[in-house]
Predict the structure.
Amino acid sequence: PAAMRESLITYPRVTWADIGGLEHVKSRLQDLVEKPLRHPEVFERIGLSSNLGVLLYGPPGTGKTLLAQAIARESGVNFLPIQGPELFSQWLGESEESVRHIFDVARRAAPCIVFFDQLDAVVPQRSDLEHEGTRAPQRVVNQLLAELDGMESRSQVIVIGATNRMSMVDPAALRPGRFGVHLHVGPPEEAGRSEILRIHLAGAALGDGLTLDEVIAHLVPRTTGLTGADLAFLVQNAKLAALDLDQASPDPRLDIATFDAVLAETARTA
Ligand code: ATP
């Protein structure tokens, strides 16, 4: 029904420009997902299947969800996000039925990207199933694999999964034709951190005479090992700190000392 379809489908606003670093992953997604979705007739003509699934794997906060949102937005297709554990909660009803329902909705909303976040919760290793009992019943796993296998390339539905723990995903789900393309999404190197900081600092009010380039040059060597989510949090905290330090001012500005204070605080609590 239309009401159900509307409740699941979303329209992300994230673009490639909102994602710092990850050049390699972005360009692979453009080749694998965006081109076939934009030019289905070309792929059909040369007999290339656009029936594919992609797994994004890597630590929390590195941009996996952003990438999935951006690929949908930039390809101009519908986006159907599923939080892995939600599949087993009440709102979608019987889990097995939910899996069927999700793919029904996706086919009707095609072209569409279905995004399974925390895929390890949906299709855990078999040994885990035994330990956790009822969390992810085998029939749900089987239903998902059956949906993936039954998908026709011309259906214009592409599945993308994300996980922090690839080793916890049932290998059966990782085979070609299922979530068969594996793209690593890691913490940013220097250039990536610089881009991410530039994105999150856009429009921020800086102290007198201080430039954005100076702030970034100061922060990049001091943020080794931080993820995109950590960097976003750092900028938010710096803005809050500027407010606190300068409550009387109607116009709080960020300067190097504010960032250093926040970094020192982060190091202390880490
Ligand atoms: P999880 O595995 O915990 O779901 P994730 O890898 O999906 O994490 P996201 O949800 O995409 O991470 O990122 C969380 C937030 O961190 C984003 O909303 C964004 O503010 C920031 N962020 C993470 N990575 C990047 C990036 N590469 N560029 C810009 N912002 C980023």
